[in-house]
């Protein structure tokens, strides 16, 4: 398999953590999510504000360039939007400096103007990355910084630490192996591993190639006197089939989809944070098979089946090779025949007659995991849910080709076959996704090849090809190109990477994708997967379903159910199940979607089937097998046919059972446990076990690694694209050089960069084969320390517990820990030259934000490469909703009177809105300014941003009581060391301590550091609380660049400032910190430690 970039690995030398660093590493037994300077589960550094909040540069006089969509006609808006976008792109192409305000104002949000052209949950995305604007552009500040870095690197390579010049300069880059060995092909590697003669051996030896319902009526009881339950089921089935098949109706292509439950979730999974797909809402019922990115997912099998004969959009499987392209209906064009016909989406919709028909679509990798248990293939672990059946609407491809002047003449004897080619707008790792089908097939109107722009009568969801995709009924999903951009006709078959090197079934002796044998067979026309093959699956009994043996009594039945499909429009004419491993078969009742027939005999849909069996026979069976028959009277094979791509597995689907003793809670009643062959992805609940070959391969993968140890602190430093470490199986790898050629794209790796967690291991093992592990070995640096290993384990357990506890929550509050929820900007109020108060409305008429005192929300905005995320603490609400029971466990935190004052009511949760006070770091001639603060200052009212939370492991519940990482602690003398925007979590604590009932014994001392008087946030409010506190609150402001009139503390936070304005260490006293990294880590923490405070005991980071 050719690659544009060789799969070569390079790593940087690293000595590992020192013995002292390993000795001093914290015992991470509790996770310590509040530990200052270490990433918590939300990837935030507790106690530290973001770098841009350090206040680099002086706020400028930049005007509020808020964009607006109001007051203009559709034509004027579109013309203005396209002009602004062209101007922005022209500036970029010239190399002009572009800041975040320029991007926001240059990229209008069409979604606000035309929501009807998009699927529910569409998000606005800025077509840039934070690094592109802040780090990659030639801002003077960047140029100065780069020069200093280059000088420092040069000095490091030419002088010793004490300044002595060295003559032998050693580069810090090293090749793991020599060039040929490092970049060798998989076929070479396999021969070196003992498979040298496999091809010849296969030929020389001349080996043969293998290749329910419970209610029973009286009639049923009478039939039981004459027939067995199986015979009764067969009789009823045959009677049903005779009538049912005759009454099936044809579909004229003009019907509406009966499925209306298509997209309900508009929140976004936190797994999308660090991927280009950060703007996409996806169903929580989809099982991810390739980690966080790209999305390849299927619904849990029972949910898919229960969704009905027409699948809800959000339960349909998703197959993506890379990031979903962010295309706009208003700007997207379809190029047909190299410019002979160029269609806008409105033209495609309005100029051509559309048909709307149900089509079953399945990935040709459906059921691949069963093959992977025999021997690892090149594909990831699809279960049996990689299918679905929905209504697709759009014009026939034939009509569009005719409009472009393509001749309809068919290939005849002696004439050359022609092909129609398709290209998507996405950019996967191996070039554009292209494929082709015979032109004759496309031009045949009875094949219903269409250009779909609706799915179940709504605009295509982005994951399914928005705004337009190719749909070839009866073909495998890999030929149905999404995000369709180009169509053209050739007299030869497409030669692109994805057409040749994907969607193929090869002979089993081909076990790799390189070398002469692979090249010959991947390019062989007869290995291509086009028409779908015959398949059937048992859904019920479900995986893990248990049936008590006490149910085995006379007359009781069980309904076995499942689905089946075939390709090419061929009807599935029969489905049978066996309870005795194929000795005898029971006939099943079929159920098709309404109006399943096209053109007299074409069946593009799947079907559901069922059969009712005696419960006694079911519980006696050791297995249940299913097979289907098609119009050619062919049926599925009994055994799987392994192939290196893991495609088109359609052997009998077998569910096995065994008797298991019930638990004490179940009074020890034994039951029958049903198990499917496999669970999708990394699930381990199926009856299939890894083969001996797979076990040996796993043992080889685990063996060997340098014993250099790395602490958690060291690993977390390497979290960037130019310095990317990952942890797999307790080993540390430098994956930086892999980003350039990784088949799944760099985003799949960058989401794990610098992360000390178990998720990387789980995802890697579920996706990759032996050759991938071989490449990984070349990246190895060493191992994690035992303390870091314990941290990963305990953190995984805590995260799993947190996720389980959050399931089903959030119905009466907006914030969710594992999903992003959109909120709308309602109001923007200027508090000072560079400070704004933003008011956001909560969605769906939910009134409660659901944030604990001192906790944060994370605010997200969608960028091209990942979500831009900043943590903020709202300045309203500051007190819990008195009517929300979960917020009021601690009665003393309630307002101090039966009739709260207007001030208290205004601060309580439950108003359906919240406020953020944000300082804007404007751009200047030297630097681009803060990302989030400028975006908030420029987006139009009505625009959406994302929130999630609560984050932070510190919650103040009132009367001096804190919940810190699940442990209750009480402090009545509270020190706050705050800086810049880090004031806000402390402000929330101050408000509650000053206004809540039962707070009279709580005293607060504050050191608040800023640059100038104008930088002090919420100064008037703080002064008000000082007065209301009557001596319980004292605030000391420290300014580094004050005016001459300033009478307060000048300079920076230091030991003298801290000791002069805070409570000394002692019983009931604690310090809470939040501010810029330099202030907290280099000044405040050392001073507090020297004074006698201890981290995790009485020093914590918000």
TrEMBL record:
GO biological process: nitrate assimilation; sulfur compound metabolic process
Biased composition, class Basic and acidic residues, residue ranges: 1-26, 40-52, 80-95, 169-209
Keyword Metal-binding: yes
FAD-binding FR-type domain location: 818-957
Entry-linked Pfam families: Cyt-b5, FAD_binding_6, Mo-co_dimer, NAD_binding_1, Oxidored_molyb
Compositionally biased spans, kind Polar residues: 60-71
Keyword Flavoprotein attributed: yes
GO molecular function (one): sulfite oxidase activity
InterPro entries recorded: Cbr1-like_FAD-bd_dom, Cyt_B5-like_heme/steroid-bd, Cyt_B5-like_heme/steroid_sf, FAD-bd_FR_type, FNR_nucleotide-bd, Ig_E-set, MoCF_OxRdtse_dimer, Mopterin_OxRdtase_euk
Keywords: FAD, Flavoprotein, Metal-binding, Molybdenum, Nitrate assimilation, Oxidoreductase
Required co-factors: heme; FAD; Mo-molybdopterin
CDD domains (alphabetical): cyt_b5_reduct_like
Enzymatic class: oxidoreductase
Cytochrome b5 heme-binding domain residues: 707-785
Residue ranges of the region described as Disordered: 1-97, 139-215, 873-899
EC number: 1.7.1.3
Reaction catalysis annotation: nitrite + NADP(+) + H2O = nitrate + NADPH + H(+)
Entry superkingdom: Eukaryota
Entry similarity comment: Belongs to the nitrate reductase family.
Function: Nitrate reductase is a key enzyme involved in the first step of nitrate assimilation in plants, fungi and bacteria.
The protein's assembly and partners: Homodimer.
Name of this protein: Nitrate reductase [NADPH]
Source species: Friedmanniomyces endolithicus
